[in-house]
Write a structure and sequence with these properties.
Elements: H1 2-10, H2 54-57, H3 67-70, E1 89-99, H4 106-120, E2 125-135, E3 140-143, E4 147-148, E5 162-172, E6 178-185, E7 191-199, E8 206-214, E9 224-227, H5 242-252, E10 276-277, E11 306-307, H6 340-348, H7 350-366, H8 376-384, H9 391-400, H10 404-410, H11 412-415, H12 433-442, E12 450-451, H13 463-466, H14 475-478, H15 487-492, E13 496-500, H16 502-505, H17 509-513, E14 522-529, E15 535-543, E16 555-558, H18 564-596, H19 599-608, H20 614-619, H21 626-636, H22 643-647, H23 654-664, H24 673-679, E17 683-685, E18 693-695, H25 701-724, H26 728-732, H27 735-748, H28 764-786, H29 789-793, H30 813-820, H31 822-829, H32 833-846, H33 868-892
Antiparallel strand pairs: 1-5, 1-7, 2-3, 2-4, 2-6, 6-9, 7-8, 10-11, 12-13, 13-14, 14-15, 15-16, 17-18
Helix pairs in contact: 1-7, 7-32, 18-23, 18-28, 18-31, 19-27, 25-28, 25-33, 30-31
Protein name: Lipoxygenase
Keywords: Dioxygenase, Fatty acid biosynthesis, Fatty acid metabolism, Iron, Lipid biosynthesis, Lipid metabolism, Metal-binding, Oxidoreductase, Oxylipin biosynthesis
Region (Disordered): 1-93
Length: 930
């Protein structure tokens, strides 16, 4: 029983393994330009000095552009310009900042001490400077002599998180400017290099932002390469860096270097290789047929590609990859692992997660009669008293497991759940119809509400299989709810809206309803927009596949209640709508659209864009942690019998439903906010409006706040792209850029590669639009769908992720049970105690910001680029994000906005850019970090 509890725990909270390290960036990338192409920046002002951004930027002095790039005549061959006359040699120094782990176990501390002593005996770290220029006599890049990093032994006992070491060089006067640094680690352990600054050159300090793990030579005998923070398009690459640019990316693709020797094999955790694979590791057929899951990706079940790990196939199914079960780590490129601060945030919740999952499992195993909630007070007690055990029950548990009493005595605070925001201001708000409707505009999933444009709604599914496509909702059902309007008048006036989950659920309902403890419908809900600007539900349709022609259970319509019995039937119908909504939110809008569909663009960026490429520099903060969190999701969230299958109504068919949505619904050209609002009929184009759109529901918090951030991102991407791409030819001629997008589409989204709707990448406007959409999805869209999960969804009666009973028909035995004890029947239809507490524990973790979160507009690595134009645009973007936050605060204080203000109404802060750590129901990180 205890092992079962621990297995449940392993599937119920996210925490990186203790050995996981830090780091994000790597140097290098491909070069598709010939070595002899001109490297000039004649279309832009030369880079002469970096605009100051914080203390680090004040130290940046960028190399003056060559005379020919500035438009001046070149000097005569037999004489040098005065500024280019060099002494025979001069001293230079590399200042290397290494980040140490804050917490080391005894084994690691011993290894670190051994490295320090070995360093003193000559097994040191060696650095080499690589010039931007070619040696004319040898035809290869100019390189300095290798120099050992000094101070490792002397600083072995320093307790600081960041330790600075130096390497001294004597550089020939004709060396030119340093464009790269190589690092050879002859210690036994990897170390994390944060940055390198090379000083002493006439042009001033050269900055290298590294943020990467450097493996020892026993793991990889090749030195690591880090490039300067100066951005270079491929054709601008200095000749001394051309081959390094090409080689470094070839290593990242697994084509060269140590990883190339075993290209088809399993990736080691120390590798930095980026490759694609299908989702063939969600099931475990070796454990039995019930644990097998279909492969996602391919003709039968199209899906985006994920990061390849190369693990062996299972014994029983050669299509399936063997699993690595949590907490054993699964492969992502070494620098994509969580940093120490992220791991600390996840591990701090480990005891709470253990108790929250372990205790309900024990309670339900000993006392089956309390597996269900007896009343709403039992749900409330999770927040008031936690899982306080009655003495008789505690005695039973004590006889079975003696340490239970100690857990109860010492951990009462941890046994309590934090009160979700949704019931803090009004404990009963969730029961009201207006709150049910408001959450469609300002809740966890505000992206499915759409304007009804034709009545009745019509299905797109095959009528031969699923019956007549027309909805069963008639004018008679809703005419009395339209404020005196006819249905035609209400449609014409843009007053009728809908949540339509009919087509996404209907193909799976027979299989879902055959599962033990799972019951679902395909639902449609109609809303009327009142004169006050709020929505009210006017009809709910619950649909099942017809068993016979004219089957009366196939389509049932419920309208706002007029008596006690119809009130409870209405509440059950709303709960089924919320369960549909929760499944679509988690499987499609959240996981598919912001996690899975972004992974190919991230993999391709690392494979095809050099670290020197300006577009990689733009994308870098928006790719942080995503590959690691997706890998963890495959281990414990979306895997067979994982948290998602256990906690949501579709059960084992969850990921098949996600694949169905990818095939039928997902289109990148409709993923941007304006396009999505127009597609759903929630807005129309209007150039006179601030964002070029007129919202048909003026107080639509997700959309109004989202457009503030969308416009800020759009202007930032437009300004940044204009800095580097002055013409269509400059976009079409950038081979790295074109390869990035082409590979993301043709390989990363191979099952949809031939779709006609893929955006073009032919002009600067195309590029800015594509980047705006990607940045939006990984930042604001993900934040709006993720960080409200516990605050807005932690009270299960408000939003049950799983339903266990259908709505009874009059004459059924279950209908009599409903009439006799309605609130007990209602609670028995919701998740059980164990299901509830497990689900709450997971979304508690998923809704938490870590202390090392990086928010929209923030870049902690202040020396990320040496381009003053890019830095100026970044500062303006940060300022605009701050102004958007101030405007959101004003809106939340405006009593006229009734969808975000009023008695018991929560403000809408999910798009407020900044946040403190913890569960705050606000904050927009740069990337998909959880």
């Amino acid at each position: 029983m205890a092992s079962a509890a621990m297995e449940l725990l392993g599937r119920s909270f996210l925490a990186g393994p203790p050995s996981v390290g830090a780091g994000r960036e790597r140097g290098g990338g491909p070069c598709f330009a010939a070595a002899g192409r001109e490297q000039g920046r004649s279309r832009r002002a030369p880079l002469r000095s970096a605009a100051p951004v914080g203390a680090l930027a004040e130290r940046v002095v960028v190399t003056p552009a060559p005379a020919e790039r500035a438009g001046a005549a070149p000097p005569e061959e037999d004489e040098e310009e005065p500024s280019r006359q060099h002494p025979r040699s001069f001293p230079a120094r590399a200042v290397v900042t290494v980040r140490r782990r804050r917490k080391e176990d005894a084994k690691r501390r011993v290894a670190e001490q051994l490295d320090a002593y070995a360093d003193r005996l000559g097994r040191s770290v060696l650095l080499e400077l690589v010039s931007t220029e070619i040696d004319p006599r040898k035809g290869v890049p100019k390189r300095s002599r290798r120099s050992a990093l000094t101070g490792w032994y002397e600083k072995k006992d320093v307790k600081s998180e960041r330790v600075v070491y130096t390497a001294e060089f004597t550089v020939d006067g004709s060396f030119g400017d340093p464009g790269a640094v190589t690092v050879l680690n002859r210690h036994q352990r990897e170390f994390f290099v944060e940055s390198i600054v090379v000083e002493g050159f006439p042009s001033g300090p050269a900055h290298f932002t590294c943020n990467s793990w450097v493996q020892p030579t026993r793991v990889d005998r090749n030195p690591r390469v880090f490039f300067t923070n100066r951005p270079y398009l491929p054709h601008e690459t200095p000749p001394g860096l051309l081959e390094l640019r090409r080689h470094e990316l070839s290593v990242l693709r697994g084509e060269e270097g140590i990883a190339a020797a075993d290209a088809a094999g399993e990736r080691r955790l120390t590798d930095r290789v980026w490759e694609y694979d299908v989702y063939n590791d969600l099931g475990n057929p070796d454990k039995g047929a019930e644990f097998a899951r279909p492969v996602l990706g391919g003709h039968q079940l199209p899906y985006p590609r994920r990061m390849r790990t190369g693990r062996p196939k299972t014994f029983t199914d050669e299509r399936a990859e063997s699993r690595v079960e949590y907490p054993e780590p699964t492969y992502v490129s070494r620098d994509e692992e969580f940093e120490e601060g992220k791991n600390e945030m996840l591990s701090e919740g480990a005891l709470k997660a253990l108790l929250h999952n372990f205790m309900p499992l024990l309670v339900s195993s000993v006392s089956p009669d309390i597996r269900d909630f007896a009343g709403f007070h039992d749900v409330d007690n999770l927040f008031k008293e936690g899982l306080r055990l009655k003495q008789a029950l505690q005695d039973q548990l004590f006889q079975k497991i003696p340490f239970v009493r100690k857990i109860q005595e010492n951990s009462e605070g941890l046994l309590r759940y934090d009160t979700p925001d949704i019931i803090k201001k009004d404990k009963f708000a969730w029961l009201r119809d207006d709150e049910f409707a408001r959450q469609a505009l300002a809740g966890i999933n505000p992206v499915n509400i759409e304007r009804l444009q034709a009545f009745p709604p019509v299905s797109k599914l095959d009528p031969a299989v699923y019956g007549p496509p027309e909805s069963a909702i008639t004018e008679e059902h809703i005419i009395g709810q339209l404020d005196g309007m006819s249905v035609a008048e209400a449609l014409e006036g843009n007053r009728v809206y809908m949540l339509d989950y009919h087509d996404i659920f209907m193909p799976f309902l027979d299989r879902i309803n055959a599962l033990d403890g799972r019951k679902a419908y395909g639902t449609r809900t109609l809303f009327f927009l009142t004169a006050a600007g709020t929505l009210k539900p006017i009809a709910i349709e619950l649909c099942l596949p017809p068993m016979t022609e004219g089957c009366r259970r196939a389509k049932r319509v419920f309208t706002p209640p007029a008596d006690a019995t119809s009130n409870w039937l209405w509440q059950l119908a709303k709960a089924h709508v919320c369960s549909n909504d929760a499944g679509v939110h988690q499987l499609i809008n959240h996981w598919l659209r912001t996690h899975a569909c972004m992974e190919p663009f991230i993999i391709s960026a690392h494979r095809q864009l050099s670290a020197m490429h300006p577009i990689f520099k733009l994308l870098k903060p928006h790719m942080r942690y995503t590959l690691k969190i997706n890998a963890l999701a495959r281990q414990i969230l979306i895997n067979g019998d994982g948290v998602i299958e256990s906690g949501f109504t579709p059960g084992r068919y969850c990921m098949e439903m996600s694949a169905f949505a990818y095939r039928e619904i997902w289109r990148l050209d409709q993923e941007g906010l304006p396009a999505d609002l127009i597609r759903r009929g929630m807005a129309v184009e209007d150039p006179s409006k601030p964002h070029g759109l007129r919202l048909l529901i003026e107080d639509y918090p997700y959309a109004t706040d989202g457009l503030l951030l969308w416009s800020a991102i759009e202007r930032w991407c437009g300004a940044y792209v204009a800095t580097y791409y002055p013409s269509d030819d400059s976009v079409l001629g950038d081979a790295e850029l074109q390869s990035w997008y082409a590979e993301a589409v043709h390989t990363g989204h191979a099952d949809k590669r031939d779709a006609p709707w893929w955006p073009r990448l032919s002009t600067p406007a195309d590029l800015a639009s594509l980047l705006t959409t990607l940045l939006w999805l990984t930042s604001a869209q993900h934040a709006a769908l993720n960080f409200g999960q516990y605050p807005l969804g932690g009270y299960i009666p408000n939003r049950p992720p799983l339903m266990r009973r259908l709505v009874p028909c009059e004459g059924d035995p279950e209908h009599a049970h409903l009439v006799a004890d309605p609130h007990r029947f209602f609670l028995s239809a919701l998740p059980s105690l164990t299901q509830t507490t497990t689900f709450m524990t997971v979304i508690d973790t998923l809704s938490t910001h870590s202390a090392d979160e990086q928010y929209l507009g923030e870049r902690p690595d202040e020396a990320w680029t040496a381009d003053p134009a890019a830095l100026a645009a970044a500062r303006e973007f940060a300022d605009e994000v701050r102004r958007a936050e101030e405007e959101i605060e004003r809106r939340n204080a405006d009593a006229g906005r009734r969808n975000r203000c009023g008695a018991g109404v929560l403000p809408y802060e999910l798009m407020a850019p900044t946040s403190g750590p913890g569960i705050t129901c606000r904050g927009v990180p740069n990337s998909v970090t959880i």
